[in-house]
């Protein structure tokens, strides 16, 4: 573990800079030795400079111990930003280049949080989403464009290597949890090629982890059970696309997208991991101090745990939990929530 954590910070677009400001307040309040370097990447930087993310930028980011990212994605009506140019050219490029093959997304219903579920029970699960493959790799194309016979493909890439390493991570992660259960979520009844690889990999790796209970759900059914019986989940392992969708649902059932944190992990430590809220740049509320910074703050807790700063991480989680339990009907600004949590961290 480094004596000082060198953190690269990419506030990004929309509410990204607003929530990152609050996350950094909380990080400072922990007194953990961290140095930060801010990078301007995002839609506005691209519109100003014509640059999204150069290879030399990735090299510079890779010199850090970790990355904190707010969110990226500009004005959806701007024709210069169509085709997910920023999401693909910045966020996915970073996840792929820094080999963030585990996208860890915990889901807990904190006490005091209002969940839309009638019977939330003890909801505490984590989604281990594959982060470097699936249909997000950009393998596809469009032919016969502009004709009635246009064809568009978006190929889902699933390699034995990529699937096995994330499945192994999920089983190892389950071993550190009380219930020790892994649920593979896929669509093996229709996506038989990719699904077959995922299922056979889970079956094989499971033999090495006899203490871990194994389960399977088709992704459509998984959405039902995530709403009706969320307490049955412990560790969900799934591909990049299903994991993306399921974790927005997981956020919705556990108090809202403003509370959902994530880590894009490079478990070997060869490259820095990147921590970010699950949400996007939320252009509909950007610049109004309406964003909940809790997801970004909980991403700081994930970052701290990653660096063995378990006490500081616990203080952040406890301060968030205390803040959530006292949230009433009075609306607070992004900065007010951040300051309240930072003050509580500093006092503990
Ligand atoms: N990691 C990233 O940087 C991500 C970027 N995006 C990008 O963000 C842009 C907007 O995407 P959307 O699909 O609208 O998803 P979004 O997550 O930005 O917003 C969905 C809804 O949740 C609300 N919301 C999000 N974060 C919130 C917070 N912290 N507090 C309160 N409400 C919050 C928004 O106001 C909106 O109504 C797009 O350009 C998209 O590509 C989307 C997801 C992840
Ligand atoms: C914007 C996408 C590239 C990413 C996303 O929605 C996510 O990682 O949750
Ligand atoms: Mg998403």
Automatic annotation (TrEMBL):
Domain of life per record: Bacteria
Pfam families given for it? Iso_dh
Write out the residues that bind substrate: 95, 105, 129, 220
- Can you state which reaction this protein catalyses? (2R,3S)-3-isopropylmalate + NAD(+) = 4-methyl-2-oxopentanoate + CO2 + NADH
Subcellular localization, per the record?
Cytoplasm
Instruction: Keyword check for Manganese, yes or no.
Output: yes
Main location class = cytoplasm
- The entry marks the following residues as binding Mg(2+), namely 220, 244, 248
Q: What class of enzyme is it?
A: oxidoreductase
Q: Subunit structure of this entry? A: Homodimer.
Full protein name? 3-isopropylmalate dehydrogenase
Q: In which pathway does it act?
A: Amino-acid biosynthesis; L-leucine biosynthesis; L-leucine from 3-methyl-2-oxobutanoate: step 3/4
Q: Which organism is it from?
A: Rhodoglobus vestalii
Q: Which GO terms describe its molecular function?
A: 3-isopropylmalate dehydrogenase activity; magnesium ion binding; NAD binding
Q: Which residues bind NAD(+)?
A: 280-292
The UniProt entry, under SMART domains, shows: Iso_dh
List cellular component terms (GO): cytoplasm
Site (Important for catalysis) found at: 136, 187
Q: Which UniProt keywords apply?
A: Amino-acid biosynthesis, Branched-chain amino acid biosynthesis, Cytoplasm, Leucine biosynthesis, Magnesium, Manganese, Metal-binding, NAD, Oxidoreductase
One GO biological process term? L-leucine biosynthetic process
């Amino acid at each position: 573990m480094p004596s000082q954590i060198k953190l690269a910070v990419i506030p990004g677009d929309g509410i990204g800079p607003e929530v990152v400001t609050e996350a950094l307040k909380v990080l400072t309040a922990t007194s953990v030795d961290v140095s930060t370097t801010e990078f301007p990447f995002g839609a506005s930087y691209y519109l100003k400079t014509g640059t999204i993310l150069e290879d030399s930028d990735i090299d510079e980011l890779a010199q850090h111990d970790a990355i904190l990212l707010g969110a990226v994605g500009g004005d959806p009506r701007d024709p210069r930003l169509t085709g997910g140019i920023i999401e693909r050219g910045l966020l996915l490029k970073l996840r792929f280049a820094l080999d963030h093959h585990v996208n860890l997304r915990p889901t807990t219903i904190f006490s005091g949080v209002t969940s839309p579920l009638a019977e939330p029970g003890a909801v505490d699960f984590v989604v281990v989403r594959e982060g470097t493959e699936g249909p997000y790799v950009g393998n596809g194309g469009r032919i016969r464009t502009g004709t009635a016979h246009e064809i568009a493909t978006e190929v889902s890439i699933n390699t034995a290597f990529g699937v096995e390493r994330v499945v192994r991570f999920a089983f190892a992660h389950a071993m550190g949890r009380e219930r020790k259960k892994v649920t593979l979520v896929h669509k093996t009844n229709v996506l038989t090629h990719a699904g077959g690889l995922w299922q056979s990999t889970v079956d094989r790796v499971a033999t090495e982890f006899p203490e871990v209970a194994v389960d399977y759900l088709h992704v459509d059914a998984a959405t039902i059970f995530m709403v009706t019986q969320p307490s049955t989940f412990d560790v969900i392992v799934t591909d990049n696309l299903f994991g993306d969708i399921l974790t927005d649902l997981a956020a919705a059932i556990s108090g809202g997208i403003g509370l959902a944190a994530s880590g894009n992990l490079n478990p070997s430590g060869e490259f820095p991991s990147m921590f970010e809220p699950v949400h996007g740049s939320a252009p509909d509320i950007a610049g109004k101090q309406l964003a909940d910074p809790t997801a970004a703050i909980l991403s700081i807790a994930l970052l701290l745990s990653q660096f063995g700063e378990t006490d500081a991480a616990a203080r952040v989680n406890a301060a968030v939990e205390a803040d959530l339990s006292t949230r009433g009907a009075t609306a607070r600004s992004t900065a007010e929530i951040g300051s309240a949590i930072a003050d509580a961290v500093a006092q503990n």
